[in-house]
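Justification of computing resources. Each target in the renewal requires a structure prediction run like the one illustrated here; the chain below, 204 residues long, is used simply to show the kind of job we budget for.
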Amino acid sequence: MNKRARRLAPALAALGLSLVVVIHALWIPLKAEVAQLLLHDAWARARHGIEAPRPWPWADTWPVARLTSDQHDVDLFVLAGASGSSLAFGPGHVDGTALPGEAGNAAVGGHRDTSFAFLEALELGDVLQVETPAGELGRYAVVETAIVNERDTRALQEEPGRALTLITCWPFHALAPGGSDRYVVRALEVPLLPEAPGGRARTS
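Resulting structure tokens:
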């Protein structure tokens, strides 16, 4: 290697490293956007009666409900299972609890800095909408928020009627991931508003 090549080698190495960092930074949001498009497609298939429609062939999850909030500009697909691989793409349904929109207590977990960041802004009385793959729409009003230890499983207990329990890590703006505390939002089903002109029930 000549002297000029030796002088250029560190600069080329630094340039290569910079390109890797830039590509990595661009890849993460691009992957998230592609994933959401695939989830939209999977949800459309679920709405047409396809059972457990996987958004991509190797996925171990699929959309089981749609969670929206007009007040907080939220539109999320709830995915099957609350494993790390599911939560990377959206909130996940906690196995062993009722499915969102069904009778019982439907528990859903999500990351505090992405899909469930909006929980911090929820107030008592705020309304969340849940849509099932069958097209049924339910409205849930927030009745309680609480901070509990991760070992406290009372939020997962079954109860009569239809309830929605949303869970994320606490505090919201912690620098380190995880932690031993959880922020819990409990919402109960409320009746749909009277039918609007045209025969469709209003939801807000």
